[in-house]
Write a structure and sequence with these properties.
Length: 499
C-alpha cells in the first residue's frame, strides 16, 4: 500500500498537471476568440468606431515626408498630433507604400501585442523560474479587458508598450549591464511612440540599482532622459515651438474630473477578469502576508537594491496610482489601464506561483477557472461589439456615396472619421477634430469656427444631428439607411448652395 506521503505526492503531481492543462486550455480558448476579433477588425474597411484610427494619417503623412507634424496646429491642414513622432513614422511607412489604409497599422498592433505578451511571460519567468507561472502571466494578459479592447487597432499603445516591456524584459535579466544601451534605445522609442510611457524608465533604473551595477542604473536613467530630451528639443525647434505647446502648454489645459476617474474605474471593475486578478493577489497577500514580496529593509535596499519581486510589485502599485490620476483628464479611456494590466498579470503569476509552492493547488485551479471564465465572458461582449460594427457598414457606405455625389472631386472637407472622406477621394482638414471643436483651447476653437464660417468645406461629417445652428450655411442630409446602434453615429452636413 502507498504511504500517506506518497499519496500526497501523487495528488500534488495530479493537481499540478491539472493546473498546466487548465492554463493551456485557457490560452487556446481565449487565443481563439482573440483570433476571431483580430480577423474581424483587420478586414473591416473603415474606422473601428471610435475617434482614434484614421486621424493618425495626417501627422503620419507629414512625418514620412520629412516634415514636423507638430508644426501645423494653426495652419492648414490643421494637424494636432497627440502621439509620438516614431509612431507616426511607422504609420507613415504604411501610408507611403500602400496609400491611405488601416490594415498596416492594425498589423503593427498585432505584432506589437505579441511582443508585449512574450515580454510579460519572460519577465514572469525571470522572477519565478517557473514555466507555469509565466504562462499564467500570459493567460492573465489575454483575459483582461483593456488588452482585449485594443487588439488589432491602429493606436500607439501596444507599440509603445512593446518597446517598454522589451526594455524591462532585458533589464530583468541583464545582471552585468551588457545590454543597457539597447534598453535605453527601447525606452526612448517607447516614449516617442506615446509620451505617457515614462514609468518604465524608473523601473529599469531600479532593476539596475544593485550593489555591483549602480553605475549601470545611472547610465540607463540619465541616458534615457538625455536621449528623450534631445529628441524633444529637436522636435520643438523644428516645429517653431509647436511640440512643447501641444504636449505641455495645451495638454495642461485639459480639465480633470473625478467623475471620469470613477467612470473608467467602474468600467474596469465591471470586467469579471479584473475582479479575479484582484482576488488572486489579495488572497495570496492574506496567506503570505506579502512577506516575500514586500519585506522591505531600508539598509538592505541601500546596499543591494530591490529584489525583482519587489520591483514588479512597486511597478504595479505605482501604475495603479498613476492611472487613477491620469484617467480623470479629458480624453482618457480604458486603454490607460494597459500598464496596470501588464504589471498586474505578472504580480498575479507571482501570487499563484507562491500558492502552488505552498500546496494550495485547488485554490489556484479555482482562480484560473474564474479567470478564464471572466475573460471569455468579456471577450464575448467584445465580439458582440464587432457584430454591431459590421452592421453599421451600410450606413457608413451610404455616407461615402452621398459625399461622392454632393461634393466636387478632390475637394477638402471635415470629418470626425477622415476615412469616410478619403474613401470618396476627398481630402480632410482638422484631423483630431476634438482638439479644435471643444472650448478649452480658445486659439484652436477660434480657428475652427473661422474656417467653418467661410463655407470653404463642401461637406462636414459630424458626430451629432443638431449642429445646423453651429454650421451656418450647411444643411443636414438624412440617409435612407437607419442610423446604426451601439456605435458612434455620424451625420452628413453639406454646403447649402441655396443660401
Amino acid at each position: 500500500m502507498k504511504s500517506k506521503l506518497e499519496e500526497k505526492q501523487t495528488e500534488s503531481k495530479q493537481n499540478e498537471r491539472m493546473i498546466y492543462l487548465l492554463i493551456l486550455f485557457g490560452i487556446i480558448l481565449l487565443g481563439s476568440l482573440v483570433f476571431g476579433i483580430c480577423a474581424s477588425r483587420f478586414m473591416f474597411p473603415l474606422n473601428l468606431g471610435d475617434y482614434y484610427e484614421s486621424f493618425i494619417w495626417s501627422p503620419a503623412r507629414v512625418a514620412i515626408a520629412g516634415q514636423n507634424p507638430y508644426a501645423y496646429s494653426i495652419s492648414p491642414p490643421y494637424i494636432m498630433a497627440p502621439y509620438g513622432y516614431v509612431y507616426y513614422l511607422f504609420i507613415g511607412v504604411g501610408v507611403k507604400l500602400f496609400g491611405l489604409q488601416l490594415w498596416f497599422g492594425r498589423l503593427l498592433s498585432i505584432v506589437s501585442v505579441l511582443v508585449c505578451l512574450w515580454s510579460v511571460k519572460q519577465i514572469s519567468f525571470s522572477i519565478t523560474k517557473d514555466k507555469q507561472a509565466s504562462l499564467i502571466a500570459l493567460l492573465s494578459c489575454i483575459a483582461l479587458y483593456p488588452v482585449q479592447l485594443n487588439f488589432c487597432v491602429q493606436r500607439p499603445d501596444f507599440t509603445a508598450f512593446a518597446f517598454a516591456l522589451l526594455a524591462l524584459q532585458i533589464a530583468y535579466n541583464d545582471d552585468e549591464g551588457r545590454r543597457k544601451f539597447f534598453v535605453i534605445i527601447c525606452l526612448a522609442l517607447a516614449f516617442f511612440c506615446k509620451h505617457t510611457i515614462t514609468l518604465p524608465v524608473f523601473v529599469a533604473a531600479l532593476l539596475y540599482w544593485r550593489k555591483e551595477s549602480r553605475l549601470n542604473a545611472i547610465i540607463v536613467f540619465l541616458g534615457t532622459i538625455l536621449l528623450c530630451g534631445l529628441g524633444m528639443y529637436l522636435l520643438n525647434i523644428t516645429s517653431q515651438g509647436g511640440y512643447v505647446w501641444q504636449h505641455f502648454t495645451h495638454a495642461g489645459r485639459l480639465d480633470f474630473k473625478i467623475e471620469r476617474v470613477i467612470e473608467n474605474l467602474l468600467v474596469m471593475l465591471k470586467a469579471p477578469a479584473t475582479l479575479v486578478l484582484i482576488a488572486g493577489i489579495v488572497i495570496t497577500a492574506f496567506f503570505a502576508r506579502m512577506k516575500n514580496l514586500l519585506s522591505f529593509n531600508f539598509s538592505t535596499i541601500v546596499k543591494e537594491g530591490f529584489t525583482k519581486e519587489q520591483v514588479v510589485v512597486i511597478h504595479f502599485l505605482i501604475a495603479c496610482l498613476l492611472v487613477l490620476i491620469s484617467t480623470g483628464r479629458f480624453g482618457a479611456s480604458i486603454n490607460y489601464y494597459l500598464e496596470v494590466s501588464f504589471t498586474g498579470s505578472i504580480v498575479l503569476s507571482l501570487s499563484l506561483h507562491w500558492l502552488m509552492q505552498n500546496h494550495k493547488t485547488q485554490l489556484v485551479q479555482a482562480i484560473l477557472f474564474l479567470l478564464i471564465l471572466g475573460g471569455s465572458f468579456q471577450m464575448v461582449r467584445v465580439i458582440r461589439g464587432e457584430y454591431f460594427r459590421w452592421k453599421s457598414l451600410p450606413y457608413n457606405q451610404e455616407i461615402i456615396e452621398t459625399v461622392n455625389r454632393l461634393t466636387p472631386p478632390e475637394s477638402v472637407c471635415i470629418s470626425v472619421f477622415p476615412d469616410l472622406l478619403t474613401a470618396s477621394g476627398r481630402e480632410f482638414h482638422f484631423d483630431d477634430w476634438l482638439e479644435y471643436a471643444v472650448p478649452w483651447s480658445p486659439e484652436l476653437n477660434e480657428i475652427f469656427k473661422r474656417e467653418v464660417a467661410t463655407g470653404r468645406y463642401p461637406a462636414i461629417i459630424w458626430h451629432d444631428s443638431i449642429s445646423e445652428e453651429k454650421f451656418q450655411g450647411y444643411r443636414l442630409v438624412r440617409m435612407k439607411t437607419p442610423v446604426p446602434e451601439k456605435v458612434h453615429p455620424v451625420y452628413l452636413y453639406v454646403r447649402d448652395e441655396t443660401k
